[in-house]
Amino acid sequence: MKQHICIFGAGSIGCYVGGRMAAGGCPVTLIGRERLRLELRHSGLRLTDLLGADLRVKPDALCFVTDAEAAADAELVMVTVKSADTAAVGRALAKVLKSGTIVVSFQNGMGNAGLLRDALQQQTVLSGMVQFNVVNRGGGHFHQGSEGALEVEQHPAIERFIAAFARAGLPLNQHADMLPVQWAKLLLNLNNPINALSNLSLKAELSQRAFRKCIALAQTEGLRLMGSAGIRPARLSPLPPNWIPVLLKAPTWLFRLLANKMLAIDPLARSSMWEDLEAGRITEVDWLNGEIVRLAEKNDHHAPVNARLIALIREAEAGGKRHWSGEDLLKELKQAAQG
Question: What's the total number of domains in the chain?
């Protein structure tokens, strides 16, 4: 018997993961916004990746709705909404989900699974993390623009879905403790505002040493505060987290020589924060760099670099400067760090 899976928050990540599951033969319901529903009603889904996969889900084989009621009979619900919407989604799901439904938070930030658990006390809520980038190329085409996997909290309830994820080409990596994995992903996501302010693709941004030094400043501050709080982020790449800022600051020729995996990115890939600014949406900066600022405040420290990045994104959301050069942004962040 095939398992019914629901994606709540069918944007770029949700459409890609849900589309891969559907292409793998699993009944999937996507819950998202009317605009995208209308687009996919005509185009269906096309899912591609760096390894050459090119899969399609025809419009008549796609179940895309806008109402939480559609999750009522789901056995697994993957939540992929922006962090600001998590509490509202929890309340909506609490009204419709049957007891025992598995809910996985595949979202950025640290506290989303906890918010969902508060609302869904009759369900099993697990932490998850999407390690890869997804590019929305328009017309129902979603492309996995970087390497990575799906990470999920280890739990007996997830075991029966392992085969479905494997058939979709999205194997799950299970972890007894997701917190170190989430903190490691957060460190990487500290680049999101820098990429958004550069107005460049991720690959083009990483090719410029000044922008890499900006990332290194934000990550070094984050690592220092994590160390003070006794947090040890997991190793998600060939390099330990503490070594990544060192590599980022290296001359470009050396960075290119040593960072092949980091540069294995689609030339069009950009951060979701850039996409949010382009669309005039409020970003997730409070749930990314904001986590570092809150960690600092909790332990009577300061996080001036990440706080300044938040302020610059807030200004950009309000129509302020969005096209920074690497040199100008680095100067701005260094001034913030020096007080």
Answer: 2
